[in-house]
From TrEMBL:
GO terms for molecular function: DNA binding; hydrolase activity; RNA endonuclease activity. Keywords: Endonuclease, Hydrolase, Nuclease, Toxin-antitoxin system. Belongs to the PemK/MazF family. Transmembrane segments: none annotated. It is an enzyme of class 3 (hydrolase). Toxic component of a type II toxin-antitoxin (TA) system. One of its GO terms (biological process) is mRNA catabolic process. It comes from Faecalibacterium prausnitzii. This is mRNA interferase. Its EC number is 3.1.-.-. It comes from the Bacteria.
Amino acid sequence: MIPKDWKYLRGDIYYADMEPHIGSEQGGTRPVVVLQNDVGNRYAPTLIVATVTSRTKKKKYQPTHVLIAHNTAFEKPSVVQLEQIFTIDKSRIQRFLGQTTRHEMRRIEEALMNSLEINEWDRRNADE
């Protein structure tokens, strides 16, 4: 259990209870990476996270996925799934696992922009 005064940071990795889930949503108790900014992490009762899977074979080549091969937070290589973004209550967090490196977080940010098509929208609408 995480203490109430815990300081959540962007890039932190936690185990979170993602149940109940529906359909293709990632469920179960699984690692998540915090995407939300640190001001939101401090004051909001919720966190914005992306789920992580250890099923790396079919997932590592998608533009919304980031393979993390060598981070001690994970028992084996894992993939951050930036198409699986959730706002969760902090009470879903079960345990701190570690943090992403600066390089890993940069790659996560790029995949997040792909998932939300942030740069593409700007380019398509530049002439307006």
